[in-house]
Design a protein that fits this description.
This protein is an alpha/beta fold and 690 residues long. It has 3 domains: 4-314, Alpha-Beta Barrel (TIM Barrel); 369-527, Uracil-DNA glycosylase-like (Rossmann fold, 3-Layer(aba) Sandwich), CATH 3.40.50.10630; 544-689, Sulfate adenylyltransferase. Helix content is 35%, strand content 20%. The protein has 24 helices and 30 strands. The strands form 7 sheets. An 8-stranded parallel beta barrel has the order 4-5-6-7-8-9-10-11. Strands 26-30-29-28-25-27 form a 6-stranded mixed beta sheet. It has a 5-stranded mixed beta sheet with strand order 17-16-15-19-20, with helices on both faces. A hairpin with a 4-residue loop joins β12 and β13 (252-254). The radius of gyration is 29 Å and the shape is globular. 42% of the residues are buried. The structure holds zinc ion.
Length: 690
């Protein structure tokens, strides 16, 4: 089988949506991530199994009986099979020889088997086992150059042994699937798992299909998908069924404990209930297997739905609360692999609410990237004379909330309001300059607003506020219009670190009461001219959107570039359904960018990108192998160079072959690391070209 994989969409962490094609001729494919269902004689003898899994796209087979041409070409013509052999190496080669057409032309791909040692082994013995396997695998790969294969990867709990496999995988183009057979047998060694995944993701072709097998239960699936696995073998469910375990997704429960079956599947609504107490019933084991496989598949359907259209990270976070090991694994991944995973994670999204449910959300890679980028790229407006610190609101963007509308009314009474810098404090994102309230993830996150802050939330926000305030002149006064212990603790931490003077408004019961707002007004009145800084004029930038666009462009493209784009004055036009703002350069009356209010992202036109041409080394760019792009997608083979920091879904500029000219603008599908490591598939979607 001529199997291959295309990456279609990159999601948070290492997670990805892709397509597995069975053959380059027939173009039949199925979507990944997906679950691989075991096919056995017993299951095939059950009408319910056949009915339920009739349209399932991928099965795992170990028996030669399923390798019959009639079977494969008839009912299962558009289905793919992964064949794994459990006997000796010699017998495996014989089977390949006996069925030449099955493996080269039909829908079966075989995984080169690994003979499993039965006793626990030490590292030297593991190395010996692996070397023997590699030697044997090499001879198979060389003998059948036109067949696609999967290879089994076993690390025997020594993560560094992954290095032994890498040369073989790099050298043999007919390896299409990497099956990790024992990586998850010891989840408590999660650091080892991450070391292996990191090597795989950064060293090897990202068009390889990653398969997880071994002792996997459904509650691990969301994390496996987050780690970048495309297919998950569910065969272990058969062993668990034989041991009388019932899958509830959260846990596997011994079946004798169940009083009512919490599932409406064909097994549970049928005879299974009557057989629960029957210890040795073969029929019970079969029905239990059926339930366990169906429930695993349903769970995978749910996972892929959330991956496709919702904020997958909050779905994953919820599932980690079922298991301390999953929880700590995700924490380790966030803290120790951020520098790697940031290049894999989009920081833009359309209309999906991000729910933050607790400490596990604080260090999501997109949140960390947001905080670090604001700290790095935020440049104070030169004319700022006063800083006003405000609390966040449940409604987003903040300025559309009731409380912020009240604050606005007071602040805008002063004609010099553009001289005031508002900063909003929020958990777990940190300190947000008003100008950035419309971008991802500020526009989409949702947290329970209880007023209680944990020490870690206080530290995150205090650290970010300190870094921002250090960018300002020390003579600029700071007004704090806040209430509550959490906010006060943040300011207490920050006061020790910065040179500016802090002033607090008088707040009685709440921040929007008549007296509190009056106090805010008084404080502004007395402090607005207190700075001794020599200030530049701001006449051009009284418009709030102009101020926002300049800062958003700095955030997206690099410090100072907002002024290059919008500093000469702009006009704006909203589209009909008010989802986009068209940005037009005033003097030349030229359309230079669009701001997408749902995505919270600026998208440059070619004319806009041309304004930044002399800074191209700072920007995200792709170099096309030619002068003119056909169609609206840019594919990997057409790209000869690219900048190192592209994130998935970010705005990219496309240059011609000799980098002399901008020939198109678009949005990346995948980030720089993927571009480096893929050989095929779409890299960017073009929305304007020459
Ligand atoms: Zn069921």
């Amino acid at each position: 089988m001529d199997l291959f994989f295309d990456l279609k969409s990159k999601k948070i962490g290492y997670s990805r949506i892709g397509r597995m094609y069975l053959s380059s001729k027939e173009r039949t494919y199925f979507k990944t991530p997906n679950i691989v269902i075991p096919m056995t004689n017993t299951l095939m003898g059950n009408i319910n199994f056949l009915e339920y899994f009739e349209t399932h796209p991928i099965f795992f087979i170990t028996k030669q009986i399923f390798l019959k041409i009639g079977f494969l070409r008839d009912k299962f013509r558009n289905t793919s099979f992964i064949y794994s052999h459990s006997g000796t190496f010699t017998r495996f080669k014989e089977i390949l020889d006996e069925n030449p057409h099955i493996f080269s032309q039909n829908n079966v791909i075989s995984i080169i088997p690994f003979n499993i040692p039965t006793t626990t082994i030490d590292k030297d013995f593991a190395i010996q086992e692996i070397n023997e396997y590699l030697h044997y695998a090499k001879s198979v790969l060389d003998s059948y150059p036109n067949n696609s294969f999967g290879v089994n990867i076993k690390i025997f709990d020594y993560s560094e042994l992954i290095d032994l496999y890498i040369p073989l995988i790099k050298e043999n183009k007919n390896i299409k699937i990497l099956n990790f057979a024992d990586l998850f047998d010891n989840l408590s060694n999660f650091r080892a798992i991450l070391r292996v995944m990191d090597r795989i993701k950064h060293e090897l072709n990202n068009n390889l299909v990653l398969m997880a097998s071994g002792r996997l239960i459904p509650k691990y699936y969301p994390l496996l998908i987050y780690l970048g696995f495309d297919i998950i073998d569910s065969s272990y469910m058969m062993y668990l069924s034989a041991d009388n375990f019932y899958n509830t997704t959260e846990e596997l429960l011994p079946v004798y404990k169940l009083k009512e079956l919490p599932c409406p599947c064909v097994a549970c609504s049928g005879k299974l209930k009557d057989l629960l107490q029957d210890k040795y019933s073969q029929e019970k084991i079969l029905l239990l297997t059926l339930h366990n496989l169906i429930s695993a598949k349903i769970y995978m359907n749910k996972i892929t739905q959330f991956l496709d259209t919702e904020d997958y990270r909050s779905f994953l976070e919820k599932t980690t609360h079922d298991d301390p090991l999953l929880y700590s694994s995700l924490k380790i991944l966030d803290k120790e692999y951020f520098e790697k995973i940031r290049l894999e994670t989009p920081i833009s999204s359309s209309n999906t609410i991000i729910r933050c449910i607790g400490p596990i959300s604080y260090y999501r890679p997109d949140f960390q990237e947001f905080r670090e980028r604001v700290i790095r790229n935020y440049l104070p407006e030169q004319w700022t004379k006063l800083i006003i610190i405000l609390p966040c609101s449940a409604k987003k963007p903040y300025s559309e909330s009731k409380s912020h509308k009240q604050f606005y009314k007071v602040i805008r009474k002063f004609p010099e309001f553009p001289d005031f810098q508002e900063i909003i404090l929020t958990s777990p994102l940190g300190a947000i300059p008003r100008q950035l309230e419309n971008i991802y993830p500020v526009n989409l996150y949702d947290i329970p607003v209880t007023g209680d802050w944990s020490q870690e939330e206080i530290n995150i926000t205090a650290r970010m506020l300190t870094k921002l305030l250090k960018k300002y002149d020390k003579s600029i006064p700071i007004i704090c219009h806040i209430k509550g212990e959490g906010y006060s603790s943040i300011i207490e931490n920050v006061v020790k670190e910065v040179k500016q003077k802090f002033y607090f408004t008088d707040v009685d019961d709440n921040l929007t009461s008549k007296n509190a707002l009056k106090s805010l007004e008084e404080k502004i009145k007395t402090l607005k001219n207190n700075t001794d800084k020599d200030l530049s004029p701001h006449t051009l930038f009284t418009n709030t959107w102009v101020r926002k666009f300049i800062k958003i462009a700095d955030y997206q493209y690099g410090i100072g570039l907002g002024m290059k784009l919008f500093g000469n004055g702009i006009k704006m036009r909203r589209n009909r359904n008010k989802t986009k703002l068209k940005i037009i350069e005033q003097a030349k009356d030229e359309f230079i960018a669009t701001f997408d209010l749902n995505k919270g992202q600026i998208e440059l036109t070619i004319a806009g990108a041309d304004l930044l041409f002399s800074f191209i080394h700072k920007l995200n760019y792709l170099v096309f192998d030619g002068e003119k792009i056909k169609g609206s997608n840019l594919f990997r083979p057409g790209i000869i160079d690219f900048s190192p920091n592209i994130l998935p879904q970010s705005n990219v500029i496309i240059l011609n072959k000799n980098k002399q000219k901008i020939i198109a603008v678009g949005n990346a599908i995948v980030g720089s690391n993927n571009i480096k490591n893929i050989k095929r598939g779409i890299v960017a979607e073009i929305y304007e070209k020459l």
